[in-house]
Amino acid sequence: MRPSKARPGLIARLIEGSARNPLLTVLFVTAMGLWGFMSLRAAPLDAIPDLSDAQVIVLTDWPGRSPDLVEDQVTYPVSSALMSAPGVSYVRGQSFFGLSFVNVIFEDGTDLYWARSRVLEYLSTVQNDLPADARPTLGPDATGVGWVFMYVLVDETGRHDLADLRALQDWNIRYALQSVPGVAEVAAVGGYDKQYQVQLDPNRMMAHGVTLAQVQSAIQESNRDSGGRTLEIAGHEHMIRGRGYLGSITDIETIPLRVSPSGTPLLVRDVAEVSLGSEPRRGLAEWNGEGETVGGIVVMRQGENALTVIERVKERLEAVRAGLPEGVRVEVAYDRSELIEASIDTLTHTLLEEMVVVSLIIFLFLLSVRSALVPILTLPVAVLLAFIPMLEQGLTANIMSLGGIAVAIGAMVDASIILVENIHKRLEEHEDDPDRLSVVIRAMQEVGPSIFFSLLVITVSFLPVFTLQATEGRLFKPLAYTKTYSMGFAAVLAVTLTPALAAILIRGRVRRGDAHPLS
To answer: Are 397 and 479 in contact (CB under 8 A)?
Structure first.
């Protein structure tokens, strides 16, 4: 009784199917490679991974209060309320003179916008416990690495002082750049924030019997427009309204505080001096040793492509330059795109050099151009395929993620080299076999399954890296992901693309092993 022939395993059947249908296999892999190339083009670029926590900043402005009072009345109530929010790891509070910062740190992997909505929800419950004039607001939806661009305003004529440049920044350039897609905030630095200052004279206030609250209330109530109704005159409707917005020093000086019994109005200028000044500042901006200047910091929204956002900002700045006053120009102070492009170019050159070196070594040991093309062609395809899950996962192409591919390149071609070497060995033994394809398939089936599973073992070798948490995890996980993806696709290509290429390229007589110059 003849023993039944064992049925080949799944990997062996996959190798045979790919080798006997090489054109179909190559077309399918080519389509996947095009998908990988499109993913590569669409992948967000950055210099380094985003190492910042998922955090929401709550800023509360309470002018004129001391830090201890801000701590007791604002920081403590807000911090206490937010500690019970879902997904919060810890809360950090900082109190300054007239200012409160509360940083809410969420667990790793928390969606930033979900976290912001939870913070807003809890702030609505604590609002009644805060002072009436203390209103908490959320910081921009950005991360610690969101600072991607900075510019300064330079006046060549000297006709514009720092207050004029700051007004130009705050009321023109800032709004133009904030509308750029991907920009979370445009923060102004340097210069003077122009304001109207009312300097009260206590002696005159006492003589007229006027209090500080009366002056403050009069100025606030005088700085508004009032609505009316429409009047029809000669068949036309005319809108009636009261114009009351303050626009000059004279407008403030002529605000009435009260009317005396004789009918004489008491004006602000009777008890105070009104002047144009600047808000007290806590810092300044200096440019190239030429003196003080005014600038803006562009902060990118979380998850955006830094290089794309910077290009959009530059395009908008070119449009803004046309409307600047004569003699005022915009100069770039910091541009992260240079760092990003330099980092990507360095790693790209490294990857290309590794591919060239690996290809040369393969050719030297095989001494067959067509046989060497089998592992050489597999290498770039595996690299391109690794970008498909990268894009779907939201990983950026940076030093660490591309470094994972660089680490994997040396091992990615091992399977193809071993398969080609075994094919050469079997073809030497069966030179006269007319069914050459069957010899090639049997040679690959002998070592293919073992090589496939050995590559899978190498693929999961970075599994401990995925257990890292916090900053360490955010730094090294991109490298582990891309290395794993590259090795995984290399293992799959070893039993699909490699057999198809071997069936197409390995033809004719092969050099015997004992005839190799290096043997």
So the answer is: no
